[in-house]
Amino acid sequence: MQTTAIKFERFQHSQDEECQQRIIAAKEKLGKKLVILGHHYQGEGVYRHADYTGDSLKLSRYAAEVDAQYIVFLGVHFMAEVADILSRPDQIAILPDLAAGCSMADMANLAKVERSYRELNKVLDFDETITPLTYINSAADLKAFCGEHGGIVCTSTNATKMLEWSFARREKVLFFPDQNLGRWSGHKMGIPLEQMPVWDPDQPMGGLTEEEIKNAKILLWKGHCAVHQMFRPQNIIKFRNEHPDGIVISHPEAPFEVCLQSDYVGSTEYILKTVREAPAGTRWLVGTELNLVNRLAEEMKPQGKTVQFMSHVVCECSTMARIDPQHLAWTLENLAEGNVVNQIKVPENEAKLAILALQRMLDAS
Ligand code: 13P
Ligand code: SF4
Asked: Which parts of the sequence bind [4Fe-4S] cluster (predicted)?
């Protein structure tokens, strides 16, 4: 039965503790109709309510497999879009706060990608020579662009594999929006830095000469994650001086020099797995978002493992943090009353093309 939607104002000033009780009660009422997917960067106040947690790849697989009518995403906008695209048409993807975006994803948009396509077409035949490869941290219309132009999506787990997929088909890749992930993944394949120039979409011809474009293997879109950009090689040098037996692990969105100096580089899921499986008593410096690192540090304490955050500055993803207990309680109570709030619905024409690029990734990974 549907009633008038409860307004968020009624939850805005509620205490976290009260919201926790309300979330539990609404979840119970919704039962199997609801599944909550949570990204590792979410704060503890909502993360503890997730039925499944994971990195972007794992969560997109869950979205494609779960049976529930409502898929509530504790994450950011592009993740809920992927859940909508990969789930059945009768399932509903929901993002508790619509303002939870990803600033890196916003560094590329369709107008700029289409302009780049036109400009690159002046130098070479784009559809014959360049595979567009978008990081999953991008809007659905960019995934649709990749679907339409023989391209593919990647996550931080499978970026190298998706580059291999791309090079098996065409000689070059336009990689957007994260230059750091593109550079690190290309480097792992042995591509020299000179063949991975930065494509600046705000400059005519990306700021490159015709020769530079022709010589490139990967054109790296000028985009980055503001959170991971904070990590510096000096953080690693200081740590290694203080703890010569310490181990460094970073997310590939971190700057290239940080990845180069790390012992391990990988997705959020990979970071958790690697530290969890390490011998007791080891000491770790972790270069990724603060919520994940704090939670991991607590979890590892009983095993005598020390987990230290890479920066002295607080690097929290402020958009991920928008999903708080107040928004989750509001969303679930509305669902329990039969009111769908904050549904994420990708237009059908976009979804049809985006799923091509996503499915290519899921099949190849
Ligand atoms: P993962 O896929 O590694 O979880 O990364 C997602 C993300 O947004 C990292 O900033
Ligand atoms: Fe986007 Fe960076 Fe936040 Fe990940 S950490 S969601 S890339 S802004």
From this structure: 102, 225, 317
CA–CA dist 151, 189 (Å, integer)? 19
Annotated binding-site positions for [4Fe-4S] cluster: 102, 225, 317
Does the global pTM surpass 0.90? yes
* 334 alpha carbon – ligand 2 mean position (Å): 28
| CA of 30 relative to ligand 2 center, distance in Å | 30
**Which of 88, 63, 159, 189 shows the shortest CA–CA distance to 365?**
159
Do residues 251 and 265 lie in contact, with contact meaning Cβ atoms separated by under 8 Å? yes
- Residues with a CB atom less than 6 Å from ligand 2: 76, 102-104, 137, 225, 227, 253, 289, 317, 319-320
Q: Kindly state whether residues 109 and 213 are assigned to the same domain.
A: yes
In a domain, 328, yes or no: yes
Structural domain harbouring 187: 105-224
Mutate to test the pocket of ligand 1, among 39, 135, 273, 320 (most ligand atoms within 8 A of CB): 39
Ligand 2 atom closest to Cα of 76? 6
Across the strands, what pairs with 180?
A: none
3-state secondary structure of 66: coil
One-letter amino acid for residue 224 of the chain: H
297 in the same domain as 239? yes
* CATH code: domain of residue 70: 3.40.50.10800
Q: Are residues 76 and 138 in the same domain?
A: no
Reading the chain (365 residues) residue by residue, the pLDDT tens digits are: 667 899 999 898 989 999 999 999 999 999 999 999 999 999 999 999 999 999 999 999 999 999 999 999 999 999 999 999 999 999 999 999 999 999 999 999 999 999 999 999 999 999 999 999 999 999 999 999 999 999 999 999 999 999 999 999 999 999 999 999 999 999 999 999 999 999 999 999 999 999 999 999 999 999 999 999 999 999 999 999 999 999 999 999 999 999 999 999 999 999 999 999 999 999 999 999 999 999 999 999 999 999 999 998 887 899 999 999 999 999 999 999 999 999 999 999 999 999 999 999 999 98
Rounded CA gap, 89 and 362, in Å? 19
From the CA of 76, give the closest atom in ligand 1.
8
Phi and psi for 324 in degrees, rounded to 5?
-115, 175
Give residue ranges with CB within 6 A of ligand 1. 40, 55-56, 137, 155-156, 225, 253, 267-268
